[in-house]
Amino acid sequence: MNDTLNPRLTKGLLNHYPLIYLQSREEQRLERQLENLSRAHYGDDRPVKVWSAALGLDGNSAQADPLEVIQTIRHTNEECFFLLRDLPALFAGNPVLVRALRDLYRDLADQNSFVFMSHPALLLPDELKGQLWLVDLGMPNETEILEFLKELLASTGKSASVDDEWYLQCATAMKGLMLDEIRHLVHGWSSENRFAIESVLPDIYADKTAALQKEGCLQFISKSIQVGQVGGLENLKEWVMSRKSLFSRSSFQKGIPMPAGILFMGISGCGKSMAAKVIASAWNLPLVRLDMNLVMSRAFGSPEYAFDSALRTAENISPLVLWIDEMENSFGYDSMSGTTGGSSSIFSSFLTWMQEKPPQVFVVATANRIEKLPAEVIRKGRFDQLFFLDLPSDEERRAIFKIHIKAYGANPETFNMNLLSIVTKDWSGAEIEQAVKSARIHAFQEGRVFDEKDITYTSARMVPLSRTMEEQIKHLRQWSQTRATPASKKAA
Question: How far apart are the C-alpha atoms of 337 and 341, rounded to whole Å?
Fold first, then answer.
């Protein structure tokens, strides 16, 4: 059978379930799958007969009543597929309709006709749970998208504008989009005659951002940070770059074992969130953040449902980097009681999912107080590496200053880096950036270009976290000495 067909759909047919419930938001894609399945099953091009309450059976509005169409199916001698659009929406408060379907299940048991009922949501009465084969079509896979793209461009006469590599890159990037959304994208490119890969990829990611907003708890992070924009953290950068080749098409196809995730712990402001953006940028993968506050808010259903839905969406749009920030707060874990203040079931589900998740979802988690998390979180198999991000060393502080001074429009060569590094001893990278930013503002207000005097001026008026949180930082460093890999070559 066609390898773009949903395997559970084909299994329902092989098991001879006469009634099949199709859960999908994409009617055209659903009907396309049924046409392909019918062709494979019957060996010819007989049409799929379609019914809806608005149009009737095959456009015959006289057969708009669902009970009448069920009677028509019962007495027909024609072997074919019947698709009843949105029939599950009529189940509630209609026991006669449910009874008619149970009778139909028995009548079709020895026949070669099949009835498919479609609806975006799962509305399944208890009385039909034993008779209906449930299929969630989910999102189109890469093979399905690739085939659809080729057909679209052939129909618009634009197939000569692209090559095989273009198709492969676009199909991978489009995972997580529905075929209707892809159709609109391609029509836009065709009308503008714009197919350069560097031009279309931003459009794809913009549409994926909009699609993720519909899911609510996931956020596409468009801002990227290149490895060269990071001062220090050499051990971390070496680990990231050594695994870059694993997140490639050839590696996926060869089944090379993939890293599952990485956990960052450390002092606030030392680059944990930045590191997530660096990994996604280095591996040319989209970065998606899971907002656990929205999960727990119940704005998108129960926390358990919202969390499970977010993880399944992440799987559908992989490959990607999934970022969970401040994990000890996200799950509300309380080390004193040994439970999660938010939801112990969600925490358990996350641990199980980390063990069993698809390899193309790479998890980046951060924690400021990792000692609050239980040992099973950081054991091997869930996270490949635990990195500790400490306050930057003297060399790292100078590198950080150069990056931010240049970013704010000045020449780092004209600054006394040794002086700046001494003035900001035991400062975090975020605090150094803020000192440069404040210096730039101070100089602008006086109508001149900023220099190291402006930085020393603003630095003198800032109190670093290492001074206000000295005891906590000392404790965190002691905890990490034998439990985590330092992200930097040298300690501060």
Answer: 9
Q: Is the peptide bond before 319 cis (omega within 30 degrees of 0)?
A: yes
Q: Is 97 left (phi over 0), alpha (psi -120 to 50) or beta?
A: alpha
Over the stretch 410-452, which tens digit does the pLDDT of each residue have?
A: 999 999 999 999 999 999 999 999 999 999 999 999 988 898 8
| Block residue for tokens 């299940």 | 105
Q: Does domain 227-389 have CATH number 3.40.50.300?
A: yes
Dist. CA 394–CA 349, nearest whole Å: 42
Q: Delimit the domains of the chain by residue range.
A: 7-136, 142-215, 227-389, 394-468
Q: Which amino acid is at 301?
A: G
Residues 178-236 pLDDT 10s: 999 999 999 999 999 999 998 898 888 888 877 777 767 888 887 778 888 888 899 99
Q: Over 50: is that where the pLDDT of 409 sits? A: yes
| DSSP string covering 292-350 | HHHHHTTBTB-HHHHHHHHHHHHHHT-SEEEEE-SHHHHTTEETTTTEESS-HHHHHHH
The rounded Cα 331 to chain-centroid distance in angstroms is 19
Tokens representing residue 277 in the block:
């953006």
Rounded to the nearest 10°, the torsion over CA 173, 176, 181, 187 is: 10
**C-alpha pair distances (Å), 174 with each of 158, 171, 208, 369:** 19, 5, 8, 37
**pTM over 0.85, yes/no:** no
Alpha carbon distances (Å) from 80 to 23, 52, 105, 159, 467: 20, 17, 15, 35, 76
Which option is the CATH number for 7-136: 3.20.20.70, 3.30.2350.10, 3.40.50.300, 3.40.50.2000?
3.40.50.300
Binned at pLDDT 50, 70 and 90, residue 299 comes out as confident
